[in-house]
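Exercise 7b. Backbone tokens:
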């Protein structure tokens, strides 16, 4: 029987991650109703940070061995350059690990430099792990194909050394590209969508869709003000925000939210929760703050959007709570489609706001008469190599989808980004949706 002390470091980290994950499940199942909201919020944040760090520890050990230990026996191991390189790698890993702790402690009107640096290192860390794993797999496949004789000799040694060098170079290049891409203003994407049973007097009605702004450690007031200016320039009839507006409590980040008060769409501005609103455990205060800016939360409810040209013409705009509220057992919240569509009959067009594409799928299974669902959540994968995972985990990934004869789903790739100020293989977007009557 192997004792805990005899286990390799990777196995110890994996075991620790399992323990933290088990504690998270116990907390969600048995402590949700026994702890007050604020305590539950801090416990969840702490558990998530510890879980992420224990998982990352396995990757960090691999990074250290690949980029430092491998070269420790070379002739340059005692040089000043190698010592500086060790410090750089250590600081890089330390910043990447610390990123998860910036959320509860370093959130203000504008991002702290430390938070930006930490999340940038986290993004680079993900890219580096991917390339180290991929290049290692290619190397092993090559050895297998050419036979055991390829395992020895100077050529194989050179390939082994070049693997981490190439991985670091690719990571550096893609990190810079990702930072530059994310620093650009969101692109404005104009999409025309036919809406069955939309009154002719509401033809060409303009809806601006925002999603996944993620006010918090790396997104602050300046970026939100830029988004608001771009929205106002489009002169929408309606503005909708489909979740993940924030990653922080309302009182902490209130100054950063002020630009939202300048939104003045004539037919209203509406909001539904995303999973990150529930991670803040401060949804009620967010609802009150948004209402003070004339933004109406749709908390499993709907409103009639009346045509400016005829009071007899209207369509139903409904919104559902994010499905994460059910997972977290957030009191008084959870996706309730029947309640959200109460009074919305198939005689009129129905537009539904639902943060997660999986919620859109469930809604259409229950009410196929919904004509249009607007979602977000996926970020279009945000950055390579996370794109593939986001694609596989969501029934609708990004862009416009037609479901059945008269139903469409549009998934926003996000108006900003979460945490890592990087985008690779995706672009932030403000969506201008033009509703067409049949």
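Sequence design result:
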């Amino acid at each position: 029987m192997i004792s805990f002390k005899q286990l390799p470091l990777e196995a110890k980290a994996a075991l620790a991650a399992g323990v933290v994950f088990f504690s998270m499940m116990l907390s969600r199942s048995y402590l949700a109703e026994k702890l007050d909201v604020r305590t539950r919020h801090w416990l969840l944040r702490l558990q998530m940070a510890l879980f992420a760090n224990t998982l990352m520890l396995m990757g960090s050990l691999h990074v250290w061995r690949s980029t430092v230990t491998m070269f420790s026996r070379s002739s340059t191991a005692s040089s000043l350059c190698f010592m500086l390189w060790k410090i750089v790698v250590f600081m890089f890993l330390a910043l990447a690990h610390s990123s998860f702790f910036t959320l509860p402690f370093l959130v203000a009107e504008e991002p702290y430099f430390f938070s930006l640096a930490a999340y940038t290192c986290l993004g680079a860390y993900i890219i580096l792990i991917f390339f180290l794993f991929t290049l290692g797999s290619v190397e092993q496949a090559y050895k297998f194909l050419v036979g055991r004789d390829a395992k020895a000799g100077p050529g194989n040694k050179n390939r082994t050394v070049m693997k981490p060098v190439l991985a670091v170079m690719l990571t550096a290049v893609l990190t810079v590209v990702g930072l530059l891409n994310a620093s650009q203003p969101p692109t404005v994407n104009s999409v025309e969508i036919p809406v069955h049973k939309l009154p002719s007097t509401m033809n060409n009605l303009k809806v601006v869709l925002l999603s996944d702004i993620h006010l918090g450690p790396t997104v602050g007031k300046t970026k939100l003000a830029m988004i608001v200016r771009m929205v106002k320039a489009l002169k929408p009839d309606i503005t909708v925000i489909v979740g993940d507006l924030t990653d922080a409590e309302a009182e902490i980040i209130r100054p950063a939210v002020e630009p939202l008060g300048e939104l003045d769409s004539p037919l209203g501005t509406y909001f539904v929760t995303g999973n990150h609103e529930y991670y803040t455990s401060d949804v009620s205060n967010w609802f009150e703050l948004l209402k003070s800016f004339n933004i109406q939360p749709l908390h499993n409810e709907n409103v009639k959007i009346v045509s400016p040209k005829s009071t007899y013409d209207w369509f139903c705009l409904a919104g559902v709570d994010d499905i994460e509220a059910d997972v977290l057992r957030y009191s008084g919240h959870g996706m309730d489609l029947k309640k959200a569509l109460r009074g919305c009959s198939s005689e009129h067009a129905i537009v539904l706001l639902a943060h997660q594409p999986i919620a859109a799928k469930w809604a259409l299974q229950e009410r196929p008469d919904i004509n249009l669902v607007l979602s977000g959540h996926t970020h279009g994968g945000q950055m390579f190599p996370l794109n593939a995972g986001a694609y596989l985990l969501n029934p609708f990934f990004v862009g416009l989808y037609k479901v059945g004869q008269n139903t469409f789903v549009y998934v926003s790739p996000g108006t900003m980004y979460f945490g890592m100020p990087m985008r690779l293989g995706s672009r932030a977007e403000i969506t201008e949706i033009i509703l067409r009557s049949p």
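Instructor comment: The chain has two domains: 4-182, 186-436. The chain has a mean pLDDT of 87.
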